[in-house]
């Protein structure tokens, strides 16, 4: 389970001693795990979906975080994927650079009559 640390020990003081000095581990909720649940905790689950060319994905980090992408190539040996993205174009910056269009700051509003 994500966010939990499981330690096998004979006594409570052994657990406290093992966790002492490790940042991020707080010994506040120590509980005995029933033997029937131990197998489920340590079984490995395959959660990685099969990725293939042409699939759609959502970018999780970086400049394009949250954008939609299309998978172009998959390299399973290096665990790398090449994706195709739509570039983000700042139309207001282009208009200001090349003199086309009007921005709201440059438009003069006539005085009321």
Short précis:
GO terms for molecular function: mRNA binding. The chain has 113 residues and is of the alpha+beta class.
List keywords for this structure.
single chain; 113 residues; alpha+beta; 3 helices; 14% strand; elongated
Shape: elongated
Return the average pLDDT rounded to an integer.
83
Largest sheet: 3 strands, antiparallel
- Total number of strands: 3
Beginning-to-end CA distance, first to last residue: 70 Å
What is the spatial order of strands in the main beta sheet?
1-2-3
Q: Which bin fits the share of residues in helices? A: 10-25%
Kindly name the structural category.
Answer: alpha+beta
SSE run:
HHEEEH
Portion in strands: 5-15%
How many structural domains can be distinguished in the coordinates?
2
Continuous helix count:
3
Measured on Cα atoms, how large is the radius of gyration? Answer: 28 Å
List low-confidence stretches: none
Q: If you had to describe this structure to a student in words, what would you say it looks like?
A:
InterPro entries: KOW_Spt5_1, NGN-domain, NGN_dom_sf, Rib_uL2_dom2, SPT5. Residues 51-113 form the Spt5 KOW domain. The chain is α+β, with helices and mostly antiparallel strands. It has two domains: 1-46, no CATH class; 48-88, no CATH class. Helices cover 21% and strands 14% of the residues. The chain is built from three helices and three strands. The protein has helices spanning 12-19, 35-42, 91-98; strands at residues 56-58, 68-75, 80-84. It has a three-stranded antiparallel sheet, with no helix packed on it.
């Amino acid at each position: 389970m994500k966010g939990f640390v499981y330690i096998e020990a004979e006594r409570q003081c052994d657990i406290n001693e093992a966790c002492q000095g490790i940042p991020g581990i707080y010994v506040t909720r120590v509980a005995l795990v029933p033997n029937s649940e131990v197998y489920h905790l340590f079984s490995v689950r395959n959660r990685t979906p099969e990725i293939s060319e042409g699939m759609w994905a959502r970018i999780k980090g970086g400049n394009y975080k949250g954008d939609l992408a299309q998978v172009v190539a998959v390299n399973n040996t290096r665990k790398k994927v090449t994706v195709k993205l739509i570039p983000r174009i700042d139309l207001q910056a282009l208009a200001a650079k090349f003199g086309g269009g009007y921005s709201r700051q440059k438009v003069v509003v006539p005085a009321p009559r």
